[in-house]
Amino acid sequence: MGNCLSSDTPPAVEEQLKKLYAKYSKHLLPLEQSSLFSSLGDPPYSEADVLAKPMILMMGQYSTGKTTFIRALLGGREYPGMHIAAEMSTDNFISVLRGPSDDFIPGNALVNNTTHPFHSLKSAFGESFLQRFRGSYISNKEGEASTDILDDVIIIDTPGTLDGSGNDRNYNFAEVMGWFARRSALIIIFFDVNKMGVSTEMKSVLDNIQGNEEKIRIVFNKADTVDERDMAGSLAGLRHNLAKSMPTPEVPEVYVTSLESLEDSYKTENKTFVEWFSKDKVKLLEDIRRVRFNTYSRKINILDKRARMVRNHAYVMMKLREEQRKCLTICRRQLRPQDTEKLINSLPELYKSVQQEQNRSTEEFISVKSLQDKLKHHDLNKLPRMKQSSIENSYRKMEQALTKFSTIQVKTEEK
């Protein structure tokens, strides 16, 4: 009697993602560890990181409509712990996800649950951050508003960026944003049409999420609250501020709309505006739809980007060690404080050198400022010995694996 399952049956997504993680562990993770990327750049991925539902990261300055839009995506339902107000109201990072019952989960419990992709937050940012991290479980209640989106994604709500530098926070806010950005499939950055400035803390966040430009969508929200003249000035002001604040010269497309609801209802009689806002809202919702149903390819893309960042970081560390050796003599085998300072200050030039010699995109490097800050707490006498041949060998094997996985047709995710 023949096998009832055809040999042509596509493999399940989870099955392939587990194999993908095995290749990551074998080929890329050793390079992350030897080049110190896992301590100076980004913590290693766990299997839960690769298997998890895609994350959608909501960020922006306070009272720009992030939490209100999440409520709209949930069919008008409020997640446990939600608070919406004109002043800064969300002061925690909140992971909104499907759960067996509605519940509000402390950060420690969330990171200790190894089925969720948050385990490395504890070692990366410590207890101070976990006091500001929560999980909000939403069940699929019959008769309640549809929260089907949570069957496919995890939504991350974040505190609004502050007008100052954010030094009064007791954890590194910008670095935490970078952690979530690297693991997210989509990053939606909110600006309010009535306050298009980019704060010092937001500039730091934009620097730390460098390398994720293709995931970013800029939303100029509450656009139906200004008239035609004010709209033109506000939009031009936002684009100017973004051009000065983003680490890359290309400013992502700006979606101009109002996201108080998913409906085509706006607080304006201007038909041109209504058409504009409606078109941009449809584009954003289509971006979200693609994230929901293209998990497999997006996981491959995230690991592909990570592989390039790890390779480039390894080259930077190789050049940094070459510079370190120049600071030492036969009689002086340890770096002096001025040598350490000189090495850290040389990083921007080392980045440029790698970018030019290896023909690398500036978007495929971790933030130079972030690396400088971390190296201030690292013993530069103990830099790793990196060889180009070993860097390229690890990268090539990972790329070959990713290429093979990208050609595999998995069971369709489209609904």
Question: What does this 3D model show about the protein?
Answer:
The model is unreliable at 1-6 (pLDDT under 50). By secondary structure, this protein is α/β, with parallel strands linked by helices. The chain has helices at 13-34, 37-40, 47-51, 66-73, 107-112, 120-130, 173-183, 200-208, 228-245, 271-293, 295-326, 337-345, 347-357, 368-375, 388-406, and strands at 55-60, 93-98, 103-106, 133-138, 154-157, 184-192, 216-221, 254-256. It contains 15 helices and 8 strands.
Kindly report the spatial arrangement of strands forming the biggest sheet: 3-4-2-5-1-6-7-8
Discrete helix count:
15
Question: Which structural class do you get from the secondary structure elements?
Answer: alpha/beta
Oligomer: single chain
Question: What order do the helices and strands come in, and which of them pair?
Answer:
Layout: H1 13-34, H2 37-40, H3 47-51, E1 55-60, H4 66-73, E2 93-98, E3 103-106, H5 107-112, H6 120-130, E4 133-138, E5 154-157, H7 173-183, E6 184-192, H8 200-208, E7 216-221, H9 228-245, E8 254-256, H10 271-293, H11 295-326, H12 337-345, H13 347-357, H14 368-375, H15 388-406
Parallel strand pairs: 1-5, 1-6, 2-4, 6-7, 7-8
Antiparallel strand pairs: 2-5, 3-4
Helix pairs in contact: 1-11, 1-15, 7-8, 11-13, 11-15
